Amino acid sequence: MATVLIGIDAGGSKTEFLGGPGSAISSVQRHAGANLQLVGLDETTRVLLQGIRGIVEDLSSIPIEAVSICAGIAGVESDDDAVAVRDSVMDRVNRSDILNDSAPVHVEILHDSIIAMEAAFGEGSGGVLILGTGSVVLLRRNDGHLLRGGGWGRLIGDDGSGYSLGRAGLHAVASAIDSAEQTLLRTLVASEFGIRDKSHLIQRVYREGWPLQSAADVVLTAAEAGDETALSVVRENVDALADQVARLASRAGTDIERRYALFGGLITNEWYSGKVEQALSTRAPGWRRVEPAHADPAGGAFVRAGRNADTLILKSG
Fold first, then answer.
1. Most distant CA pair in the chain, distance
2. What is the pLDDT of residues 17-62, one digit of tens each?
3. Which of 9, 105, 204, 301 has the smallest C-beta neighbourhood within 10 Å, fewest atoms?
4. What is residue 95's predicted lDDT score, i.e. its pLDDT?
5. How far from 150 is each of 12, 154, 171, CA to CA, in Å?
6. Residue of 129, 19, 110 lying closest to 64 (CA atoms)
7. Do 272 and 207 reside in the same domain of the chain?
8. What is the pLDDT of residue 101?
């Protein structure tokens, strides 16, 4: 008999699940994004249950004694949000055939930045920046107090994120179309996405609901190649992101280890992560980038699920 641990990282573009008996990860699942504010409670629950079922089916040869689940979810902005998701997941698990009725289950729901902090520093202090479809900055002082910036969503925030880069890049393309200027960024958007004129751009964005973060990689390619318009987009985003860190660092004072880790899909672009690091060195001097203890936030959630395992609660009904 084994206690199964499941760590979940649910973002705007994808949800990653890590599972296994004890501390050994032996099952990995990837499903659709599950940002609570974007897709709602029912869809978030559906995605979580899909991945949990997949993990349990992968481990079907192991007699399961108990299950401990920790999920970091983008868009969980309050305790009420966390309770709503937890109760919804527990209700669906209880009413399904995923587990036998005798297996106790514990579910912890957190904002995704907290499992990133777990992945970076365990229970230690420092800062994490998540740069994916959206963005958020989280600092934790030595006394455990959390300070969070950003995470305002794609319409009013998310500096440095894929959505912000894509939105600003496409705005620049629209301006280039209006002025008949043939920038490298405009050329790359045309070749990559078939967007060559105003009607193409409007149709993709408004009729087809094209996800603007899809243009982020093209913006970064153009910027790295020296396109001044794309470079301006990158500078504005990384400077705004670094300003967030500086403001939070000032609030944290000296009761924090001045280290930070970067997470999210955009960080795989070494040129961009270098620009972020450069901006931080200017606006938040004394802070140093470190490699996280675990490669991704799902790993942090898996570790936290292990710590929670001894507090498992019995399934009801």
1. 68
2. 999 998 889 999 999 999 999 999 999 999 999 999 999 999 988 8
3. 204
4. 84
5. 15, 10, 22
6. 19
7. yes
8. 66
Instruction: Report, in angstroms and rounded to the nearest whole number, the Rg of the chain calculated over CA atoms.
Output: 21
Q: What is the pLDDT of residue 312?
A: 54
CA dihedral 81, 86, 91, 92 (to 10 degrees): 100
Tokens of 29: 């699942």
Cα 264 to its chain centre, rounded Å, is 6
Tell whether 211 and 98 lie within a shared domain.
Answer: no
pLDDT at site 315:
40
Q: Please give the pLDDT value at position 159.
A: 94
For residues 152 and 70, state if they share a domain. no
Residue 68, strand partner residues: 5, 106
Output the six-digit token pair for 117: 């902090």
Task: Count Cβ neighbours within 10 Å for each residue of 44-71 and write b for 16 or more, e otherwise.
Answer: bbbbbbebbbbbbebbeeeebebbbbbb
Number of domains in the chain: 2
Owning domain of residue 302: 2-116+297-311
pLDDT for res 317: 33
Asked if 178 contacts 220 with a C-beta cutoff of 8 angstroms, the reply is no
Q: How far apart are CA 88 and CA 76, in angstroms?
A: 14
Low-confidence ranges of the chain (pLDDT < 50): 313-317
Examine residue 199 and state whether it is found in any structural domain, yes or no. yes
